[in-house]
Amino acid sequence: MARLVVIAAALFLAAASCGGKPTPAASSPAVNSLSIKSCTVGGLAARCGTLIVPENRLTGKGRTIPVRFVVIPATSADKAPDPVVYFAGGPGDSAVDEIPSELPDLQSLNIHRDLVFIEQRGTGESNPLNCPIFPGSLADKPPLRAGVQSCLAHLHGDLRFYTTAMYADDVNQLLGDLHYAKANLMGISYGTAVEQVFLLRHPSRVRTMTLQSGSPLNIRVYDPAPGNSQTALDYVFARCESQPACHQAFPHLAADWAALWASVGKSPWVIPAAQSPTKTTQRFDQDALANAVYQALFGYDQGLIPVVVHTLAAARNKVAALAALISALQASGQVSAGPSGGGVNQMMLFEIECAEPWATVQPAALSGQRSSFAYQTDLESAQLMQYICPLIPKSAATVGDEQLTVSHVPLLAFNGAADPIEQPRNWAGAQKVFPDSRAFTLPGQGHDVDSGSWAACAGPLTQTFIEQASAAHLNASCLPDVPAPAFSLTLP
Protein backbone atom coordinates (compact mmCIF):
# COMPACT_ATOMS: atom_id res chain seq x y z
CA MET A 1 0.00 0.00 0.00
CA ALA A 2 1.31 3.39 -0.89
CA ARG A 3 1.24 6.42 1.40
CA LEU A 4 -2.21 7.97 1.65
CA VAL A 5 -1.04 11.33 0.30
CA VAL A 6 2.30 12.38 -1.13
CA ILE A 7 3.01 15.64 0.67
CA ALA A 8 6.07 16.65 -1.36
CA ALA A 9 7.68 15.57 -4.63
CA ALA A 10 10.04 12.61 -4.33
CA LEU A 11 13.69 13.24 -5.16
CA PHE A 12 14.73 9.71 -6.04
CA LEU A 13 11.66 8.49 -7.87
CA ALA A 14 9.11 10.57 -9.77
CA ALA A 15 5.49 9.52 -9.38
CA ALA A 16 3.78 8.66 -12.67
CA SER A 17 0.65 10.63 -13.36
CA CYS A 18 -2.43 9.61 -15.27
CA GLY A 19 -5.20 11.57 -16.88
CA GLY A 20 -8.74 10.99 -17.92
CA LYS A 21 -12.29 11.77 -16.91
CA PRO A 22 -14.89 9.63 -15.16
CA THR A 23 -16.25 7.01 -17.51
CA PRO A 24 -20.01 6.41 -17.61
CA ALA A 25 -21.15 3.11 -16.17
CA ALA A 26 -22.32 0.40 -18.52
CA SER A 27 -26.09 0.07 -18.34
CA SER A 28 -27.27 -1.64 -21.55
CA PRO A 29 -26.04 -5.24 -21.10
CA ALA A 30 -28.15 -7.47 -18.88
CA VAL A 31 -27.04 -7.92 -15.29
CA ASN A 32 -24.90 -11.04 -14.71
CA SER A 33 -24.29 -11.49 -18.44
CA LEU A 34 -20.86 -12.88 -19.30
CA SER A 35 -18.97 -12.28 -22.54
CA ILE A 36 -15.66 -13.98 -23.44
CA LYS A 37 -13.49 -13.87 -26.55
CA SER A 38 -10.06 -15.09 -27.61
CA CYS A 39 -7.28 -12.55 -27.27
CA THR A 40 -3.52 -12.17 -26.84
CA VAL A 41 -2.17 -10.64 -23.63
CA GLY A 42 1.49 -10.26 -22.82
CA GLY A 43 2.29 -12.30 -25.91
CA LEU A 44 0.23 -15.27 -24.69
CA ALA A 45 -3.03 -16.70 -25.96
CA ALA A 46 -5.76 -15.83 -23.52
CA ARG A 47 -9.47 -15.38 -23.01
CA CYS A 48 -10.64 -11.82 -22.37
CA GLY A 49 -14.05 -11.04 -21.03
CA THR A 50 -16.49 -8.86 -19.17
CA LEU A 51 -19.00 -9.75 -16.47
CA ILE A 52 -21.89 -7.34 -15.95
CA VAL A 53 -22.68 -7.07 -12.25
CA PRO A 54 -25.03 -4.96 -10.15
CA GLU A 55 -23.30 -1.93 -8.70
CA ASN A 56 -25.44 -2.32 -5.58
CA ARG A 57 -24.89 -5.91 -4.55
CA LEU A 58 -27.04 -5.43 -1.43
CA THR A 59 -30.24 -5.18 -3.49
CA GLY A 60 -29.10 -6.31 -6.96
CA LYS A 61 -31.12 -3.44 -8.43
CA GLY A 62 -30.23 -0.25 -10.26
CA ARG A 63 -27.07 0.55 -12.20
CA THR A 64 -24.96 -2.24 -13.67
CA ILE A 65 -21.21 -2.03 -14.17
CA PRO A 66 -18.67 -4.04 -16.18
CA VAL A 67 -15.95 -6.12 -14.54
CA ARG A 68 -13.10 -6.84 -16.96
CA PHE A 69 -11.06 -10.03 -16.67
CA VAL A 70 -8.44 -12.14 -18.45
CA VAL A 71 -7.80 -15.88 -18.20
CA ILE A 72 -4.46 -17.24 -19.42
CA PRO A 73 -4.94 -21.01 -19.80
CA ALA A 74 -2.43 -23.48 -18.39
CA THR A 75 0.24 -24.40 -20.91
CA SER A 76 0.40 -28.09 -19.97
CA ALA A 77 -2.13 -30.76 -20.81
CA ASP A 78 -1.72 -31.91 -17.20
CA LYS A 79 -3.89 -29.11 -15.87
CA ALA A 80 -4.96 -28.67 -12.25
CA PRO A 81 -8.58 -27.56 -11.70
CA ASP A 82 -7.70 -24.70 -9.33
CA PRO A 83 -6.36 -21.52 -10.97
CA VAL A 84 -4.07 -18.83 -9.57
CA VAL A 85 -6.04 -15.61 -9.11
CA TYR A 86 -3.91 -12.46 -8.99
CA PHE A 87 -4.93 -9.36 -7.00
CA ALA A 88 -3.22 -6.05 -7.75
CA GLY A 89 -2.09 -3.41 -5.28
CA GLY A 90 -3.18 0.14 -4.67
CA PRO A 91 -6.02 0.43 -3.84
CA GLY A 92 -6.54 1.46 -7.43
CA ASP A 93 -4.24 -0.66 -9.60
CA SER A 94 -5.75 -2.73 -12.40
CA ALA A 95 -4.94 -6.44 -12.31
CA VAL A 96 -5.54 -6.63 -16.06
CA ASP A 97 -3.26 -3.71 -16.91
CA GLU A 98 -0.52 -5.23 -14.75
CA ILE A 99 -0.43 -8.54 -16.63
CA PRO A 100 2.66 -7.75 -18.77
CA SER A 101 4.73 -6.71 -15.73
CA GLU A 102 3.56 -9.60 -13.53
CA LEU A 103 3.82 -12.46 -16.04
CA PRO A 104 7.56 -13.07 -15.54
CA ASP A 105 6.90 -13.89 -11.87
CA LEU A 106 3.83 -15.99 -12.61
CA GLN A 107 4.71 -18.04 -15.69
CA SER A 108 6.09 -21.01 -13.74
CA LEU A 109 2.67 -21.26 -12.05
CA ASN A 110 1.00 -21.14 -15.47
CA ILE A 111 2.34 -24.53 -16.54
CA HIS A 112 -0.29 -26.52 -14.64
CA ARG A 113 -2.77 -23.81 -13.68
CA ASP A 114 -4.80 -21.12 -15.37
CA LEU A 115 -3.92 -17.54 -14.40
CA VAL A 116 -6.93 -15.33 -13.71
CA PHE A 117 -6.81 -11.53 -13.54
CA ILE A 118 -9.99 -9.75 -12.47
CA GLU A 119 -10.13 -5.98 -12.51
CA GLN A 120 -11.44 -4.22 -9.43
CA ARG A 121 -14.62 -2.20 -9.83
CA GLY A 122 -13.74 1.48 -9.99
CA THR A 123 -10.40 0.92 -11.77
CA GLY A 124 -9.09 0.38 -15.29
CA GLU A 125 -12.04 -0.20 -17.63
CA SER A 126 -14.37 -1.47 -14.90
CA ASN A 127 -16.29 1.78 -14.41
CA PRO A 128 -13.33 3.85 -13.20
CA LEU A 129 -14.30 6.54 -10.71
CA ASN A 130 -11.73 9.30 -11.13
CA CYS A 131 -11.70 12.97 -10.23
CA PRO A 132 -9.23 15.83 -10.65
CA ILE A 133 -6.73 16.28 -7.83
CA PHE A 134 -8.44 18.20 -5.05
CA PRO A 135 -7.40 21.85 -4.76
CA GLY A 136 -6.54 23.44 -1.46
CA SER A 137 -5.09 21.87 1.67
CA LEU A 138 -5.66 21.71 5.41
CA ALA A 139 -4.34 25.26 5.50
CA ASP A 140 -6.89 26.26 2.85
CA LYS A 141 -9.95 24.12 3.58
CA PRO A 142 -12.78 25.79 1.59
CA PRO A 143 -11.42 24.84 -1.88
CA LEU A 144 -10.49 21.38 -0.56
CA ARG A 145 -14.03 20.76 0.66
CA ALA A 146 -15.50 22.19 -2.54
CA GLY A 147 -13.25 19.97 -4.65
CA VAL A 148 -14.31 16.80 -2.82
CA GLN A 149 -18.00 17.72 -2.98
CA SER A 150 -17.84 18.62 -6.68
CA CYS A 151 -16.10 15.33 -7.39
CA LEU A 152 -18.76 13.29 -5.60
CA ALA A 153 -21.56 15.18 -7.35
CA HIS A 154 -20.19 14.32 -10.79
CA LEU A 155 -19.18 10.68 -10.28
CA HIS A 156 -20.79 8.15 -12.63
CA GLY A 157 -21.25 5.68 -9.81
CA ASP A 158 -22.29 5.31 -6.19
CA LEU A 159 -19.04 5.30 -4.26
CA ARG A 160 -20.59 3.36 -1.36
CA PHE A 161 -20.42 0.14 -3.39
CA TYR A 162 -16.75 0.33 -4.39
CA THR A 163 -15.36 -1.48 -1.37
CA THR A 164 -13.05 -4.46 -1.01
CA ALA A 165 -16.01 -6.60 0.03
CA MET A 166 -17.95 -5.82 -3.14
CA TYR A 167 -14.87 -6.57 -5.24
CA ALA A 168 -14.50 -9.90 -3.44
CA ASP A 169 -18.10 -10.73 -4.28
CA ASP A 170 -17.50 -9.84 -7.95
CA VAL A 171 -14.53 -12.20 -7.97
CA ASN A 172 -16.49 -15.01 -6.34
CA GLN A 173 -19.33 -14.70 -8.84
CA LEU A 174 -16.95 -14.73 -11.79
CA LEU A 175 -14.98 -17.72 -10.52
CA GLY A 176 -18.26 -19.60 -10.19
CA ASP A 177 -19.32 -18.60 -13.70
CA LEU A 178 -15.95 -19.85 -14.99
CA HIS A 179 -16.51 -23.17 -13.15
CA TYR A 180 -13.61 -22.89 -10.71
CA ALA A 181 -14.67 -24.57 -7.48
CA LYS A 182 -11.50 -23.53 -5.65
CA ALA A 183 -8.70 -21.07 -6.35
CA ASN A 184 -5.20 -20.20 -5.22
CA LEU A 185 -5.16 -16.52 -4.29
CA MET A 186 -2.06 -14.43 -4.88
CA GLY A 187 -1.76 -10.71 -4.18
CA ILE A 188 0.67 -7.88 -3.71
CA SER A 189 0.34 -4.99 -1.25
CA TYR A 190 -3.36 -4.01 -1.10
CA GLY A 191 -4.07 -7.23 -3.01
CA THR A 192 -3.14 -9.16 0.14
CA ALA A 193 -5.96 -7.39 1.99
CA VAL A 194 -8.33 -8.38 -0.82
CA GLU A 195 -7.28 -12.01 -0.38
CA GLN A 196 -8.14 -11.93 3.31
CA VAL A 197 -11.48 -10.17 2.77
CA PHE A 198 -12.28 -12.79 0.12
CA LEU A 199 -11.44 -15.52 2.63
CA LEU A 200 -13.79 -13.92 5.17
CA ARG A 201 -16.66 -13.84 2.71
CA HIS A 202 -16.04 -16.96 0.59
CA PRO A 203 -13.86 -19.40 2.57
CA SER A 204 -14.97 -22.52 0.70
CA ARG A 205 -13.56 -21.12 -2.55
CA VAL A 206 -9.98 -20.70 -1.22
CA ARG A 207 -7.35 -23.44 -1.60
CA THR A 208 -4.17 -21.46 -0.79
CA MET A 209 -3.12 -17.83 -0.24
CA THR A 210 0.22 -16.24 -1.19
CA LEU A 211 0.79 -12.71 0.08
CA GLN A 212 3.61 -10.45 -1.14
CA SER A 213 4.33 -7.24 0.78
CA GLY A 214 1.21 -7.40 2.92
CA SER A 215 0.05 -7.63 6.52
CA PRO A 216 -2.61 -9.54 8.46
CA LEU A 217 -6.02 -7.92 8.15
CA ASN A 218 -6.21 -7.26 11.89
CA ILE A 219 -3.25 -4.86 11.59
CA ARG A 220 -4.21 -1.23 11.01
CA VAL A 221 -1.41 -0.96 8.51
CA TYR A 222 -0.91 2.81 8.65
CA ASP A 223 -0.75 3.03 12.45
CA PRO A 224 2.81 1.58 12.74
CA ALA A 225 3.93 3.17 9.43
CA PRO A 226 6.39 5.77 10.81
CA GLY A 227 8.18 3.17 12.91
CA ASN A 228 8.26 0.72 10.01
CA SER A 229 9.79 3.38 7.75
CA GLN A 230 12.53 4.11 10.28
CA THR A 231 13.20 0.38 10.73
CA ALA A 232 13.63 0.06 6.96
CA LEU A 233 16.04 3.00 6.77
CA ASP A 234 18.08 1.70 9.71
CA TYR A 235 18.28 -1.65 7.93
CA VAL A 236 19.70 -0.02 4.78
CA PHE A 237 22.29 1.88 6.82
CA ALA A 238 23.29 -1.33 8.62
CA ARG A 239 23.53 -3.21 5.33
CA CYS A 240 25.86 -0.54 3.94
CA GLU A 241 28.00 -0.69 7.07
CA SER A 242 28.29 -4.47 6.78
CA GLN A 243 29.67 -4.24 3.23
CA PRO A 244 33.35 -3.21 3.13
CA ALA A 245 33.12 -1.14 -0.07
CA CYS A 246 30.02 0.75 1.03
CA HIS A 247 31.35 1.31 4.54
CA GLN A 248 34.68 2.54 3.20
CA ALA A 249 32.94 4.99 0.86
CA PHE A 250 30.53 6.24 3.53
CA PRO A 251 32.13 5.49 6.94
CA HIS A 252 29.91 7.91 8.87
CA LEU A 253 26.56 7.36 7.19
CA ALA A 254 24.41 7.74 10.32
CA ALA A 255 26.16 11.02 11.14
CA ASP A 256 25.74 12.18 7.53
CA TRP A 257 22.03 11.48 7.77
CA ALA A 258 21.69 13.33 11.07
CA ALA A 259 23.52 16.36 9.65
CA LEU A 260 21.43 16.39 6.46
CA TRP A 261 18.15 16.02 8.38
CA ALA A 262 19.10 18.85 10.75
CA SER A 263 20.18 21.11 7.89
CA VAL A 264 16.94 20.91 5.90
CA GLY A 265 14.99 21.14 9.14
CA LYS A 266 16.73 24.35 10.17
CA SER A 267 16.26 26.07 6.84
CA PRO A 268 14.76 24.53 3.67
CA TRP A 269 17.00 24.47 0.61
CA VAL A 270 15.47 26.42 -2.25
CA ILE A 271 16.67 26.07 -5.84
CA PRO A 272 15.67 29.17 -7.84
CA ALA A 273 13.99 28.49 -11.17
CA ALA A 274 17.02 29.85 -13.03
CA GLN A 275 19.26 27.21 -11.43
CA SER A 276 16.72 24.40 -11.32
CA PRO A 277 17.04 21.48 -13.76
CA THR A 278 13.23 21.51 -14.02
CA LYS A 279 13.16 25.30 -14.63
CA THR A 280 10.81 25.68 -11.67
CA THR A 281 11.57 26.81 -8.14
CA GLN A 282 12.12 23.74 -5.95
CA ARG A 283 11.90 23.62 -2.17
CA PHE A 284 13.73 20.85 -0.32
CA ASP A 285 12.72 20.50 3.32
CA GLN A 286 12.24 17.61 5.74
CA ASP A 287 8.95 16.61 4.09
CA ALA A 288 10.64 16.42 0.70
CA LEU A 289 13.58 14.48 2.12
CA ALA A 290 11.29 12.09 3.98
CA ASN A 291 9.22 11.39 0.88
CA ALA A 292 12.32 10.92 -1.24
CA VAL A 293 13.76 8.34 1.16
CA TYR A 294 10.37 6.63 1.53
CA GLN A 295 10.00 6.28 -2.24
CA ALA A 296 13.55 4.93 -2.56
CA LEU A 297 12.81 2.28 0.08
CA PHE A 298 9.41 1.47 -1.42
CA GLY A 299 10.74 0.87 -4.92
CA TYR A 300 14.07 -0.20 -6.33
CA ASP A 301 16.29 2.77 -5.49
CA GLN A 302 17.48 2.06 -1.95
CA GLY A 303 20.96 1.50 -3.38
CA LEU A 304 21.16 5.26 -3.98
CA ILE A 305 20.40 6.28 -0.41
CA PRO A 306 23.96 6.17 1.04
CA VAL A 307 25.63 8.07 -1.80
CA VAL A 308 22.90 10.71 -1.96
CA VAL A 309 22.84 11.23 1.81
CA HIS A 310 26.63 11.49 1.97
CA THR A 311 26.87 13.80 -1.06
CA LEU A 312 24.29 16.26 0.22
CA ALA A 313 25.53 16.19 3.80
CA ALA A 314 29.13 16.86 2.77
CA ALA A 315 28.42 19.59 0.22
CA ARG A 316 29.44 23.13 1.08
CA ASN A 317 27.10 24.71 -1.45
CA LYS A 318 23.92 22.81 -0.60
CA VAL A 319 21.72 24.31 -3.30
CA ALA A 320 24.27 23.73 -6.07
CA ALA A 321 24.82 20.17 -4.87
CA LEU A 322 21.08 19.47 -4.85
CA ALA A 323 20.64 20.91 -8.34
CA ALA A 324 23.55 18.83 -9.63
CA LEU A 325 22.14 15.72 -7.97
CA ILE A 326 18.73 16.17 -9.56
CA SER A 327 20.40 16.69 -12.95
CA ALA A 328 22.42 13.51 -12.51
CA LEU A 329 19.35 11.49 -11.55
CA GLN A 330 17.44 12.92 -14.49
CA ALA A 331 20.25 11.97 -16.87
CA SER A 332 20.16 8.39 -15.54
CA GLY A 333 16.37 8.22 -15.91
CA GLN A 334 15.69 7.88 -12.18
CA VAL A 335 13.85 11.21 -11.89
CA SER A 336 11.61 12.69 -14.56
CA ALA A 337 12.85 15.74 -16.41
CA GLY A 338 9.82 17.87 -15.67
CA PRO A 339 6.70 18.30 -13.57
CA SER A 340 4.45 15.25 -13.37
CA GLY A 341 1.22 16.97 -14.33
CA GLY A 342 -2.21 17.19 -12.73
CA GLY A 343 -3.08 13.55 -12.26
CA VAL A 344 -6.33 12.18 -10.86
CA ASN A 345 -7.79 10.94 -7.61
CA GLN A 346 -9.11 7.39 -7.79
CA MET A 347 -12.13 7.73 -5.57
CA MET A 348 -12.57 4.05 -4.69
CA LEU A 349 -9.31 4.44 -2.76
CA PHE A 350 -10.93 7.03 -0.51
CA GLU A 351 -13.97 4.82 0.09
CA ILE A 352 -11.73 1.95 1.17
CA GLU A 353 -9.29 3.97 3.25
CA CYS A 354 -12.09 5.88 4.98
CA ALA A 355 -14.41 2.93 5.67
CA GLU A 356 -12.38 -0.23 6.20
CA PRO A 357 -10.74 -0.60 9.63
CA TRP A 358 -7.46 -2.10 8.43
CA ALA A 359 -6.88 0.93 6.15
CA THR A 360 -7.92 3.76 8.46
CA VAL A 361 -5.47 5.74 10.54
CA GLN A 362 -5.80 7.82 13.69
CA PRO A 363 -3.27 10.63 14.19
CA ALA A 364 -3.04 9.72 17.88
CA ALA A 365 -1.78 6.25 16.95
CA LEU A 366 1.37 7.82 15.47
CA SER A 367 2.33 9.85 18.53
CA GLY A 368 4.78 7.29 19.94
CA GLN A 369 6.80 7.26 16.71
CA ARG A 370 8.06 10.87 16.66
CA SER A 371 11.67 9.75 16.31
CA SER A 372 10.97 8.41 12.82
CA PHE A 373 11.95 10.49 9.79
CA ALA A 374 8.50 9.68 8.37
CA TYR A 375 6.50 10.83 11.39
CA GLN A 376 5.60 14.33 10.23
CA THR A 377 4.61 13.38 6.68
CA ASP A 378 2.57 10.41 7.94
CA LEU A 379 0.90 12.69 10.49
CA GLU A 380 0.01 15.23 7.79
CA SER A 381 -1.44 12.42 5.66
CA ALA A 382 -3.50 11.15 8.59
CA GLN A 383 -4.77 14.63 9.41
CA LEU A 384 -5.76 15.22 5.80
CA MET A 385 -7.71 11.96 5.70
CA GLN A 386 -9.38 12.89 8.99
CA TYR A 387 -10.75 15.96 7.23
CA ILE A 388 -11.70 14.28 3.94
CA CYS A 389 -13.24 11.06 5.26
CA PRO A 390 -16.36 12.66 6.83
CA LEU A 391 -17.15 13.97 3.34
CA ILE A 392 -17.01 10.47 1.78
CA PRO A 393 -20.32 8.53 1.78
CA LYS A 394 -20.20 5.53 4.09
CA SER A 395 -21.17 2.09 2.84
CA ALA A 396 -22.92 -0.78 4.54
CA ALA A 397 -21.28 -3.01 1.96
CA THR A 398 -17.94 -3.32 3.69
CA VAL A 399 -16.15 -5.63 6.04
CA GLY A 400 -16.32 -3.81 9.33
CA ASP A 401 -14.79 -5.03 12.55
CA GLU A 402 -15.34 -8.65 11.53
CA GLN A 403 -12.04 -10.53 11.65
CA LEU A 404 -10.84 -14.04 11.03
CA THR A 405 -10.58 -16.12 14.17
CA VAL A 406 -8.82 -19.25 12.93
CA SER A 407 -8.41 -20.35 9.32
CA HIS A 408 -6.70 -23.57 8.27
CA VAL A 409 -6.27 -22.36 4.70
CA PRO A 410 -2.53 -22.59 3.91
CA LEU A 411 -0.89 -19.17 3.80
CA LEU A 412 2.55 -18.05 2.60
CA ALA A 413 3.77 -14.48 3.18
CA PHE A 414 6.83 -12.62 1.86
CA ASN A 415 7.95 -9.21 3.12
CA GLY A 416 11.06 -7.21 2.26
CA ALA A 417 13.45 -6.37 5.07
CA ALA A 418 13.64 -2.79 3.75
CA ASP A 419 9.88 -2.37 3.22
CA PRO A 420 8.89 1.01 4.72
CA ILE A 421 5.21 0.13 5.21
CA GLU A 422 4.71 -3.66 5.44
CA GLN A 423 7.57 -4.67 7.71
CA PRO A 424 8.05 -8.40 8.46
CA ARG A 425 7.30 -7.68 12.13
CA ASN A 426 3.65 -7.09 11.16
CA TRP A 427 3.32 -10.88 10.95
CA ALA A 428 4.24 -11.52 14.60
CA GLY A 429 1.63 -13.84 16.11
CA ALA A 430 -0.16 -14.49 12.81
CA GLN A 431 0.05 -18.27 13.26
CA LYS A 432 -2.66 -18.00 15.90
CA VAL A 433 -5.02 -17.10 13.06
CA PHE A 434 -3.32 -19.09 10.29
CA PRO A 435 -1.87 -22.28 11.85
CA ASP A 436 -0.73 -23.56 8.43
CA SER A 437 1.32 -20.47 7.54
CA ARG A 438 4.90 -19.34 7.01
CA ALA A 439 6.12 -15.74 6.83
CA PHE A 440 9.50 -15.18 5.15
CA THR A 441 11.69 -12.08 5.08
CA LEU A 442 13.35 -11.24 1.77
CA PRO A 443 16.79 -9.74 2.48
CA GLY A 444 17.47 -6.37 0.91
CA GLN A 445 14.04 -5.99 -0.68
CA GLY A 446 11.70 -3.04 -0.27
CA HIS A 447 7.95 -3.04 -0.82
CA ASP A 448 8.44 -3.75 -4.52
CA VAL A 449 10.39 -6.96 -5.08
CA ASP A 450 12.34 -7.13 -8.32
CA SER A 451 11.82 -10.10 -10.62
CA GLY A 452 15.38 -11.36 -10.25
CA SER A 453 15.08 -11.59 -6.48
CA TRP A 454 11.64 -13.17 -6.72
CA ALA A 455 12.89 -15.83 -9.15
CA ALA A 456 15.86 -16.64 -6.91
CA CYS A 457 13.77 -17.86 -3.99
CA ALA A 458 10.21 -16.62 -3.46
CA GLY A 459 9.04 -17.88 -6.85
CA PRO A 460 10.18 -21.51 -6.37
CA LEU A 461 8.88 -21.49 -2.78
CA THR A 462 5.50 -20.28 -4.01
CA GLN A 463 5.34 -22.95 -6.68
CA THR A 464 6.10 -25.72 -4.16
CA PHE A 465 3.63 -24.23 -1.69
CA ILE A 466 0.77 -24.17 -4.19
CA GLU A 467 1.55 -27.66 -5.48
CA GLN A 468 1.53 -29.22 -2.01
CA ALA A 469 -1.17 -26.88 -0.60
CA SER A 470 0.66 -26.58 2.68
CA ALA A 471 3.18 -24.24 4.26
CA ALA A 472 4.85 -27.10 6.10
CA HIS A 473 8.16 -28.59 4.96
CA LEU A 474 9.11 -25.66 2.71
CA ASN A 475 12.87 -25.51 2.21
CA ALA A 476 13.79 -21.83 2.64
CA SER A 477 17.55 -22.31 2.43
CA CYS A 478 17.57 -20.05 -0.66
CA LEU A 479 16.61 -16.95 1.35
CA PRO A 480 20.15 -15.84 2.33
CA ASP A 481 21.11 -15.90 -1.36
CA VAL A 482 18.34 -13.52 -2.49
CA PRO A 483 20.18 -10.76 -4.39
CA ALA A 484 19.83 -7.38 -2.70
CA PRO A 485 20.01 -4.06 -4.56
CA ALA A 486 23.63 -3.03 -5.04
CA PHE A 487 24.82 0.17 -3.41
CA SER A 488 25.96 2.93 -5.76
CA LEU A 489 29.33 4.26 -4.56
CA THR A 490 29.20 7.23 -6.94
CA LEU A 491 26.32 9.21 -8.39
CA PRO A 492 24.85 7.91 -11.68
Task: Please supply descriptive tags for the structure shown above.
disordered N terminus; alpha/beta; 492 residues; nine-stranded mixed beta sheet; Rossmann fold
General description of the model:
This protein is an alpha/beta fold and 492 residues long. It has a domain at 34-128 and 158-221 and 401-481: Alpha/Beta hydrolase fold, catalytic domain (Rossmann fold, 3-Layer(aba) Sandwich), CATH 3.40.50. It has 13 helices and 13 strands. It has a 9-stranded mixed beta sheet, with helices on both faces.
Provide a count of the helices: 13
User: Secondary-structure element order, as H and E?
Assistant: EEEEHEEHHEHEHHHEEHHHEHHEEH
CATH superfamily of the domain at 34-128 and 158-221 and 401-481: Alpha/Beta hydrolase fold, catalytic domain
Average pLDDT over all residues: 91
Q: Could you list the spans in which at least 5 consecutive residues all have pLDDT below 50?
A: 3-27
Number of strands: 13
* Gyration radius over CA: 23 Å
**What percentage of residues falls in helices of 4 or more residues?**
25-40%
Q: Strands of the biggest beta sheet: in what spatial order?
A: 1-2-3-5-4-7-8-12-13
- Which fold name is given in CATH as the topology of the domain at 34-128 and 158-221 and 401-481? Rossmann fold
Oligomeric state of the chains in view? single chain
